Amino acid sequence: MLDTDFFRRWMVATAAAMDREADRLTELDAAIGDADHGSNMRRGFAAVSDVLDKEAPTAPGTVLTLAGRHLISTVGGASGPLYGTLLRRTGKALGDAQEVTREQLAEALGAGVAAVAQLGGAQAGDKTMLDALLPAVKVLGASFDRAREAALEGALETVPLRARKGRASYLGERSIGHQDPGAASSALLLGALAETAGPSGGGDA
Asked: What pLDDT score does 201 carry?
């Protein structure tokens, strides 16, 4: 079972990953965006980590709704609303339960991903964060490690795609050959989840 502390540690691990990979995310964004995705993710999740220390949420769902709310308020551009929607909707789906299963998290995250798709009007293959999130959600109920791998593969598979949503879509054919930064940061989010679960949480259970 996954408790409140697990979700708090997941968000803290995500903040560390975004800080560590900020330069790479910005480099990816420089090719097809505004060159600010890394700094935005670093700032947003640092704020999430700080507020979780101060407010001490009491349920897994509360951790994510609080995180989502602060991402919306601290991250500029499209990333704040998209990541904020992802986490807030996931948290809302988890409700007030004190502990949740991996399968329940997978279902709730699926609701969050659906909300992101609706907000951005995107679907699989549009070269967005959904290309990492959708395949991860499909296997998350079976394994955190498989979800991390699926997200990484999905992010890499955005390279040959032509962007159909977001700022990158304005580049048309020139967006081909570049990895989507939102998919890359989404893979970091799933990687942090698997890291938090550790070896004992990676397999079927």
From this structure: 54
